[in-house]
Amino acid sequence: MSDDQDNGQATGRALPERGLPAERVLGDIGALRAGDRPTHGGRLFAYVYDPAVPGLDELAAAAHASSAHVNGLDPTAFPSLLAMENALVGAASRLLGGGPASTAPDVVGSVTSGGTESLILAVKAARDARPDVAAPRIAVPVTAHAAFAKAAHYLRVALDPVPVDPVTLRPSAAAVAAAIGPDTVLVACSAPSYAHGVVDPVAEIAAVAAEAGVRCHVDACFGGWTLPWLRRLGEPVPPFDFAVAGVTSISVDLHKYAYAPKGVSVLLHRTPALRAPQFFAYADWPGYTMVNPVIASTRSGGPIAAAYATLRHLGEDGYLRLAAATRDAVAGLADAVRGTDGLRLLAEPESTVVCFTSTDPTLDLFVLVDELTARGWHTQPQLSYADLPASVHLTVTAAVAPRVAEFGPDLADAAAAARAAGPVELPAELTALAATLTPDALTPELVAGLAAALGLGGPGAGPGGAAADGAGGAAARPGGSADGAGGFAPDATVNALLDAAPPALRERLLVEFVGLLQRPTY
Ligand SMILES: Cc1ncc(COP(=O)(O)O)c(C=O)c1O
Fold this sequence. Notes:
Layout: H1 22-33, H2 56-67, H3 79-95, E1 108-112, H4 115-128, E2 137-141, H5 147-155, E3 158-162, H6 173-179, E4 184-190, H7 202-212, E5 215-219, H8 227-232, E6 249-253, E7 265-269, H9 272-275, E8 280-282, E9 290-292, H10 302-338, E10 343-345, E11 353-358, H11 365-374, E12 380-382, E13 391-395, H12 404-421, H13 428-436, H14 444-454, H15 480-483, H16 492-500, H17 503-517
Helix pairs in contact: 2-10, 3-10, 4-5, 6-7, 10-12, 11-12, 11-16
Bound molecules: pyridoxal-5'-phosphate (PLP).
Pyridoxal-5'-phosphate (PLP) binds at residues 114-116, 119, 145, 147, 190, 194, 219, 221-222, 253, 265, 470-471.
């Protein structure tokens, strides 16, 4: 096939005039993938969960392919999918304190596409269970995942942020109680939080929620599939699941620490009655009668079959082994941080996160992140927030274990290089702009000018971009300039600018910058 069919572009047309052979198409995708962060190899600390188990990718891909065309729209037409979903929900329930031999024998659940969908549905179920409340509200710790804010936004539910202690990074039950009012339909907590990896005091929070007659959702999207194994390994994991009275629902993502390919989370409710308002049914049209337990209507069976295969292949013994490897990797990485001058752990690791900050004004964390990227370590910068300093987040998976010994020397080296380079110095006018500009005053011209000044690409920019996928919080993806990927290079300068701006302006800038990336290629 001639190149002109593809318009001579690096990214081939999705719809060429004449179809291309399979090898060519796969080769092109492979070429595009070369610009991505490395999904395997234990050097990527966000976005991807890799157990490094030989053969698992192939198994999951084969299972995915076997059910990719099956449609979850109608569980009676495709009983295979219903059977696999029920088995996944059963596994999650049993792991999280539900099931026949427990104090929560009536747990039911649904398989969703991810943590965000699970949280949106937990909020929807809580909202729709209270038709008597005209203006529903949810009380959510500020450290809880941003998906709660998204749920509140989508569902027109007001969000009452609950402050956290700046040292423990946890909300107190008293602060949660203070946030509960007559219109509160849901209280949320994290086990653990994504940003810092700390487990909220679930038992105390669930008690105040129960006392007020309000649902309590435990967001265990991130850690629900590791905390139980860590507990079995003897780690001091506080109670956080259905064994805790007052916990009404729990979310756990299988595409995180269950190591399934993306697109699978489980939302559990303590009883069928609690789940009922989650469903949507519609029969008032001339087409097929519709009942959707989750947000999507047509759903591929691929991710569900892949998750089912992953769980069955790894088994309890496999997850225990992977949790032990991850725990050891966390300990090694935390030691590396403790051993590096000018860095401090923001929280003592108690799950699978290592999060650190800088104690030295000459050591700029955003510059450090770029230096680590240049050394092949892909970490996640987190902007300063209220009284919490900027930090660097590492999501640690089992694949990291064999790499840990290499991290310490590279961290020391990167820290020395970051000190030598010095902190980012934004041009004075940019700092002033970030501090004073209101989101409404951002004109397209101003955005274009800012993007150009920061070296961010415009239409047609290559792969790369801000963390717009829900896993990453507000910070732009690290170190793009260090690897020369595409035309969008969010680096220390971009992070410094975002860090200087208040949250509302950060949000608006991110929307504008990602809007510049999302342009059709012809
Ligand atoms: C605690 C927590 N909740 C919810 C989510 C959102 O999950 P997803 O990105 O699968 O929508 C995440 C993602 O990292 C998370 O860590």
